[in-house]
Amino acid sequence: MPYRHQLPIAVPLSHDIEHRPGRKLPYKARVRWTDPSTKQRRSVAQMHPDQESAQEWIDSLLASASRGINPATATQTLAEYGTTHMTLALRGLEAKTTDPYLAGWRLRVVPALGHLPVTMVTNGAVDRTAYAWIADGEGRSTVKNTLAVLVRVMEQAVHDGLITANPARITGWQRQYQLAEDELDDPRALALPDWDALQELAAALVARSADQYPGWGDVVTFAACTAARIGEVSGVRVKDIDTTNWIWTLRRQTTPSPGGLADKNTKGKVARRVPLIEEVRPMVAQRLLTLRDKPDARLFTGPRGGRITTAVLRDATHWDDAVQSLGYEHLRRHDLRHTGLTWMADAGVPLHVLRLIAGHGSPHTTQRYLHPDLQSVVHAGRTLSNHLTTTPGLPPPAPGMSATLRRL
Q1: Annotated region Disordered: where (predicted)?
Q2: What is the pLDDT of residues 61-108, one digit of tens each?
């Protein structure tokens, strides 16, 4: 894409603050200057809640202009800045590298962070966004390429003097893929042990949330008992629940998208049916009663009616602190799904049925939840013994074998 050189201007700026009573942001800060190349009068403006913040904004532009930075550039959004400076940011790279970088910028960076002014992109914002990409199922190389292009654009902003440090240089996100690899080997190890542990977790999350919102506990309980992803729980509508057979037809999930959160098809692109066990039916029934005559209403929302994501649940409940206090330091929101699938497997749900409930494309993925524990092994031995001793035509146990085993 063409790069348009931004001439350093270092010209005097005029500025003012206008008070507009009765508005949510009543102070309008404005900066004006004459572009030395075109001789045109230009300006930028921004609304603020008070006069102090308006003056701080003006001071920041004055400081930028004193270093030769165009005030219009200093107030650009990340998307605008990237469009203008991308060629310069990617200089020296081969086409085979720039192609995935640009795809990451277009498909992930701009939808998630592009609306923010460059000066407001923080290390925390990038960190949370990267973890959201991982939670949404993006591969390691995809996230790596996406962060790489963001690092280069923000490094250009450092060179331009817009920011003093590169906020896109985050660490630790690779660990999430190591956890994902671990769960592929033994997802059962990531599950909560029993119902009491789930209820303890739900209560702890509610207690740590603002105003102790009970809906967070309902979301966690529902997710574990249905082996669903948090985004899928957020996508439940009243019309998806069959109270005659107590079946949830899972049709959609809530995920980040351009312009904010949006509902889209399930990860496997196919609707699936999930049983609602007796333990969650009273809670579901109460919610359906509250939302009667609203078939398109969401069954689960945040305290202000907003859509739920794994990041929203984490931040609202102080998840990391809560799980650490309970001794589950590595428990993530996605592990509620592992919990449900593990419990169903231990309850004897057949493999083909478990696969349909989980929405797995490969039976090999589902089989990993069937790793038997010691009790299951003992039960298997007893089942085989009963089969051998009761089925006609099979040889009886060897004489004296029972006594020999007792001596052992």
Answers
A1: 389-408
A2: 777 666 666 666 667 789 989 988 899 999 988 877 888 899 999 999
The CA–CA distances, whole Å, from 352 to 181, 273, 277, 282 equal 24, 13, 19, 28
| b/e 208-241 (16+ beta carbons within 10 angstroms → b) | bbeeebebbbbbbbbbbbbbbbbbbbbbbbbebb
**Sequence-ordered alpha helix ranges (H) in 7-164:** 51-66, 71-74, 78-89, 95-104, 110-113, 123-135, 140-159
d(CA 275, CA 246): 6
pLDDT score of 45: 86
Task: Look at residues 234, 275, 225, 236 and name the one whose alpha carbon lies nearest to residue 255.
Answer: 234
| Closest among 220, 216, 219 to 207, alpha carbons compared | 216
Any residues with CB less than 8 A from the CB of 114 and at least 6 apart, and which? 77, 78, 79, 82
Instruction: Give the integer Cα–Cα distance in Å for 133 and 46.
Output: 31
Is it the case that residue 5 has pLDDT exceeding 50?
Answer: no
Closest CA to 131 of 366, 298, 307, 320: 320
pLDDT tens profile 17-67: 999 998 888 999 888 878 777 788 888 888 888 888 888 878 877 776 666
Rounded-to-integer distance, Cα 182 and Cα 89, Å: 36
Length of the chain: 408
pLDDT of residue 181: 54
Instruction: Answer yes or no: are the C-beta atoms of 64 and 162 closer than 8 Å.
Output: yes
Whether residue 99 contacts residue 136, with contact meaning beta carbons closer than 8 Å, is answered with no
Phi, psi angle pair for 273, to nearest 5°: -105, 135
AA identity, residue 130: A
Show Cβ contacts of residue 324 under 8 Å, excluding neighbours closer than 6 positions.
Answer: none
